[in-house]
Amino acid sequence: MRGTPRLVAALLTLLTALLLQVTVFPHLAWNGVVPDLVLLVVVGAALVTDPRFATLLGFGAGLLLDLAPPADHVAGRWTLALLVVGYVVGRLAHDHQALTGRPSYGLMVVAGAGGSFVGTSVFALTGVLLRDPVVEVGQLLEVVLTALAWDALAALVVVPATVWLFTREPGRRTAPALR
Length: 179
Known about the structure:
mainly alpha
């Protein structure tokens, strides 16, 4: 998928993930941490698109997450974190796999967990550097590990669904005929 359909798919997927993340998942919070669906959408898109698109998608997704209520942190922290995730996952996927096909299911789950660790760590470390009082320094490791557990669980569904959305052929509605 290239061009405008890819951009529309990215925006609709990000908005859906953002709405679910800020409205439904706070009711399922574990130690105040919810699954980061927006981060996982960036990871899924980064696996099957070029690193430049993934970086820009991460920037836009992070900006949306920073501005969405109930944002209780210094603005820009999620923007930086998801920009880094988009770039790192996009670069690693682009450098180490053939871009012609879909990545394996195992790679998608590992990329989701790895992206979660990188993104949550960048978010947490920027909070320490900016002296954002949301989480104390002693609780950072607990928060990062809780987020990693939630995101690894959510990555089982979100990353493959995002990869499918970005690799499907828009005009094709039926299965190909068997020969």
